[in-house]
Amino acid sequence: MILKTNWHTHTKRCGHAIGEDEEYVQAAIKAGFHTLGFSDHAAYRTPLPTDRMNIDQVPDYYSSILALKEKYKDQLAIHLGMEVECYQSEWDTLMKYRKDLEYCILGQHTLTIDGESSYRLHTSDGLKKYTDQLEYACEHSLCDYIAHPDVCLWSYPCEDGAVRETAERIADISVHYNIPLELNAGSGVREGKKQYDDGLRYAYPNRIFFEAFAERHCRIVPGLDIHDPKLFLTDEYIKKALDVVSGLNLNIIDDFDILSEAAERKKLAY
Question: Which residues on adjacent β-strands are paired with residue 252?
Fold first, then answer.
């Protein structure tokens, strides 16, 4: 594999991943990884079985990953995290995750816990609301990097001025709060290019976003967004993601140690 570190790894508890926890570990070892972060979709009070863990699955998630961390400690550094979403209504739960976990990545899939999907945004107002949630999470030290920051473009019809404004605002947030942004090699590239009003492209990663990130020298973390152990064994999708940003002077940190920064941010979370 091109990468040897991946902080963005799911488990079947989220309802849209397959394989046992140990299979992910074994595949990562086979692929030559030295660091594996588990970051399954965080559970909240509202069940959503096809999108995230249920609250009653969290203890098993913790115990399973920690047991694997110990079992494979001589072969692979394993870490316990979650992919959280910024919901002000879930403040107590978010703060508990911040306290309990080694790290948190932010993947804002909906704007509120039962609200508008980030995959179904069609207006500039929707892009603004999405970015507001990212900024709130960074302001309150709830995350250690932003996963797929361009996921908000999944259904957005064209690369208009609002897209560039959103990209520039997210870049500014990244710089101001020193939060890395992810170059995601997940479903945005795995599902292939989509037809939009102004042409054919991947839903994400989006080149306009990464042009803004390059201009501001934002730190970029490649993430495989693994939902199937066998995806550790192919470079196909990370190469496709890298092709989207080819030629840009990106500040890619492909061996990012998230833990030291997470320890400091946990102290600041409020």
Answer: 220
Taking a C-beta distance cutoff of 8 angstroms, is the pair 270, 222 a contact? no
Q: Are 26 and 15 in contact (CB under 8 A)?
A: no
Residue 133 C-beta-side C-alpha neighbours within 13 Å:
28
Residue 156 in contact with residue 204, Cβ under 8 Å? no
pTM, to two decimals = 0.97
Give the pLDDT confidence of 75-118 residue by residue, as tens digits.
999 999 999 999 999 999 999 999 999 999 999 999 999 889 99
The answer to whether 106 and 143 have CB atoms below 8 angstroms apart is yes
